[in-house]
Design brief:
Layout (H helix, E strand, L loop, with lengths): L1 H71 L1 E3 L2 H7 L2 E4 L2 E16 L4 E5 L4 E5 L8 E2 L4 E6 L8 H24 L5 H22 L2 E2 L2 E5 L4 E6 L6 E2 L4 E6 L3 E9 L11 E6 L6 E2 L6 E5 L9 E9 L9 E18 L4 E3 L2 E7 L4 E12 L3 E6 L6 E5 L1 H8 L13
Antiparallel strand pairs: 1-21, 2-23, 3-13, 3-18, 4-12, 5-7, 5-11, 6-10, 7-9, 8-9, 10-12, 13-17, 14-15, 14-18, 16-17, 18-22, 19-20, 20-21, 21-22
Helix pairs in contact: 3-4
Family: Belongs to the membrane fusion protein (MFP) (TC 8.A.1) family.
InterPro entries: MdtA-like_C, MFP_Cation_Efflux, RND_pump_MFP
GO molecular function: transmembrane transporter activity
Length: 412
């Protein structure tokens, strides 16, 4: 009985121990799984946080790098300095800008605006003291005289007077003879014709005769453009002596390389700059118009002529060389700046951009075409940038010595 009770007790203990072992195993497995899950979550959270922090650091790094570069290159120019040098700033905005063809050219007098004065008799020519090239002359003013006193044929005025007086006497006598029918009517008409011819010739000379010979006068008011003979030279009847130009209208003749021939039909206007001035003239402001463009290149060159006509405002000299900017088809949404806003250093171009009221930065730009006044910006400037357009040179000088004072900051 005791033996049987012992066996039963052993079996109960074995069951209890088995149950505890299974529970412990489940608990260990559950705890292990929980630990692995917690470790995974912690690792994921750590990795996510690390990646997020790293991304934030990169963003902050890029931002700081941009601002750091701007601040490092910043030029301090106070409001008082800007006012003193007349500094001006313009906002970069897209707009219309014409395609441009650059060419060389020349200023010419317009046709019909000048006359050539020719010698009216043979003799020695003497210009008046004021008759120099470029001087203003009035209509009817004498610019020279021709004397034939020492010429073999004699003084033409004296000869014309003698011829006229002789013809007049013959005519008066013929009038009496024709009344008495001593001469025929036909003979009288011939005498009358000789008289009228001599009278016209004499009056033509007599009206221009002076102390020093026959006077040469200009028929129009204007400027003495050219003198074709020198003082004291012999001239013959009909020989050109001088040219007088009114210069009210002038012509601009551009010589365009033949490679642009197909583009010439789109040319509508032009800007130009003469060799003796930095001023840019716009035909649109001078009542200019396109007269013609050549249909072929010249025999001795590879250039096609394009001719405009415009009003002379008084400071444009005929004959001057011109740098011409032919304006073709307009293009929209082009960022341009005044040429004076751009500086150049060793072939690299820069502009100055305003950061705030007293802060500026020098920025490199890539240029496109220019029309003599404005230049296309291909890169380096964005819409809305505030660019210095006046006082650039003074700002450039300040860039070499500018230091950012403590406490100067920006709101970026």
């Amino acid at each position: 009985m005791k033996h049987r009770s012992f066996i039963l007790l052993w079996a109960v203990c074995a069951c209890i121990l088995a149950g505890c072992g299974g529970s412990s195993t489940q608990k260990d497995e559950h705890q292990h799984a929980h630990d692995e899950h917690s470790h995974h979550d912690h690792k994921h959270e750590h990795d996510h946080k690390h990646d997020h922090d790293h991304e934030g650091e990169e963003h902050d790094h890029d931002y700081k790098e941009d601002t750091h570069e701007a601040i490092d290159n910043e030029i301090i120019f106070t409001a008082e300095q800007a006012k003193a040098v007349g500094l001006e700033v313009s906002t970069a905005e897209p707009g219309l800008f014409c395609q441009v063809i650059k060419a060389g050219g020349q200023i010419l007098s317009a046709q019909g605006d000048e006359v050539t004065i020719a010698a009216t008799s043979n003799g020695i020519l003497s210009f008046s003291g004021s008759a120099v090239e470029g001087v203003a002359v009035r209509a009817g003013e004498a610019i020279a005289s021709i004397s034939a006193k020492d010429i073999a044929n004699g003084d033409p005025v004296a000869q014309a007077r003698i011829t006229y007086e002789t013809a007049e006497k013959e005519f008066r006598r013929a009038e009496e003879l024709v009344k008495d029918q001593i001469i025929s009517t036909q003979e009288f008409e011939q005498v009358h014709l000789r008289y009228e011819t001599a009278k016209t010739a004499y009056r033509a000379f007599a009206g221009k005769a002076g102390v020093h010979g026959v006077r040469l006068t200009t028929p129009i008011a204007g400027y003495l453009k050219n003198r074709f003979v020198n003082q004291g030279e012999f001239v013959a009847v009909g020989q050109p002596v001088a040219t007088v130009s009114q210069n009210r209208r002038l012509q601009l003749r551009a010589e365009v390389p033949e490679k642009y021939f197909r583009d010439l039909q789109h040319i509508g206007s032009a800007n130009f700059k003469v060799s003796y001035s930095d001023r840019i003239y716009k035909l649109s402001e001078l009542k200019g118009r396109l007269l013609s463009f050549g249909k072929s290149a010249g025999q001795a060159s590879f250039y096609v002529p394009v001719t405009f006509e415009f009003d002379n405002i008084g400071d444009i000299m005929p004959g001057a060389y011109a740098e011409v900017y032919l304006l073709s088809t307009p293009r929209p949404d082009v960022i341009t700046l005044p040429i004076k806003a751009v500086t150049e250093e060793q072939g690299v171009h820069f502009v100055y951009v305003q950061l705030d009221e007293e802060g500026y930065v020098k920025r490199e730009v890539t240029l496109g075409a220019d029309d003599g006044e404005r230049v296309q910006i291909l890169s380096g400037i964005h819409v809305g940038d505030r660019v210095v357009t006046q006082g650039v040179y003074q700002l450039k000088l300040a860039a070499n010595a500018s230091v950012i004072p403590e406490g100067h900051s920006h709101s970026h």
